[in-house]
Amino acid sequence: MSNNFKNLHIPGAPLVLYNIWDAGSAVTIANTKPAAIGTGSWAMAKAQGYDDGEEMPFSHVVQTVAQITQAVDLPVTVDFETGYADDLATLQTNIDRLIGQNIVGVNFEDRLIGKSGLRSTQDQCARIEVLRKTSQELFINARCDLMFDGSKPDVQAERIDELVKRAKAYADSGADGLFVPGLEAPNLIEVVCNRSPLPVNIMRMSDTPISELAALGVARISHGPRPYIQLMKSLSEHARAI
């Protein structure tokens, strides 16, 4: 199943994930016949009463993922944040526990939890290598947060060389995909897709049509916390009306 999941990442014909947070939301989305299911860490944490940024205990994450994979008969990829670990030994233990829940992939971030900035490229590569050595089948979606700080397109354009440099290093370390949240300008998305050695995942943060993102060369589209936020807004509105 994991090889099939990798094959779903096609530039121009992207895998579309409408991110979920628990077994119930996974079943609801599965009934719409998607190709795969993807969790979102922000929504998963909020649904359990925690803030994003690895505030949710990892044991709760594993339990929730187990419930999801048991509830749906689709490939499941998990938002692993930074692995809920600083040291490589704990990272190894944590990825083992997740793989034990029959997942096919993870998002894996290069930011520093609780601090500003990113890990060094060398440090993140070492961490990606831990995941790759643990499983040759796991789809490692290397998330680079260079663009995810509210910066404007002109500033983001200046960072593309660094982004591509990291992407190449992550690919050499075993990553299968490049996730670039915060990148919205069509011309920049197209440049990144053309220059990246890995298929590119974009977080759809507005109502830009899927077809337009596909035409730019995007291979995977996710929605992050938007589904949860929209659902909770609707729930609140209904409650007020009652």
CATH architecture type:
Alpha-Beta Barrel
Radius of gyration: 17 Å
Shape: globular
The CATH topology assignment is: TIM Barrel
Unreliable spans are none
- Given the helix and strand composition, which structural class is it? alpha/beta
Protein architecture, described:
- The protein is globular.
- An 8-stranded parallel beta sheet has the order 1-8-7-6-5-4-3-2.
- Helix 10 links the parallel strand 7 (200-203) and strand 8.
- 46% of the residues lie in helices and 12% in strands.
- It has one domain (2-241): TIM Barrel.
- The protein is of the alpha/beta class and 242 residues long.
Supply the key terms:
242 residues; alpha/beta; TIM Barrel; 46% helix; 12% strand
Short note summarizing the structure:
Helices cover 46% and strands 12% of the residues. With 242 residues, the chain is an alpha/beta fold. Strands 1-8-7-6-5-4-3-2 form an 8-stranded parallel β-sheet.
Topology:
Elements: H1 2-7, E1 15-16, H2 23-30, E2 37-38, H3 41-47, H4 58-71, E3 76-79, H5 88-99, E4 105-109, H6 121-134, E5 139-143, H7 153-158, H8 160-172, E6 177-179, H9 186-195, E7 200-203, H10 210-215, E8 220-222, H11 226-241
Parallel strand pairs: 1-8, 2-3, 3-4, 4-5, 5-6, 6-7, 7-8
